[in-house]
Amino acid sequence: MANIISNLNKAFDSRIRLGIMSVLMVNDSVDFNTLKELLELTDGNLASHIKALESLEYIQSSKQFIGRKPNTQYAITDEGRRSFQEHLNALEQLIR
Asked: Which domains are assigned to the chain?
């Protein structure tokens, strides 16, 4: 049992990070405001969790302007996809 628990990734312990990664796993990219609305978070709360995931290189951002407004898009990296899938697999093992 301890072996299964050791396979869980602490980066995804937070329900917010779990939500961010789940959204990005099924979308090519998602902008900040869409993530904020989907997960019902404040700007600051979302920003802090995004920063943590970016520092681990699990997600990446790209900035652009739409009209005159800045827009930041987020996408999952290959490393992020691999790590998150391993975390999901560990959860499935734990449930069984």
From this structure: 2-95 (1.10.10.10)
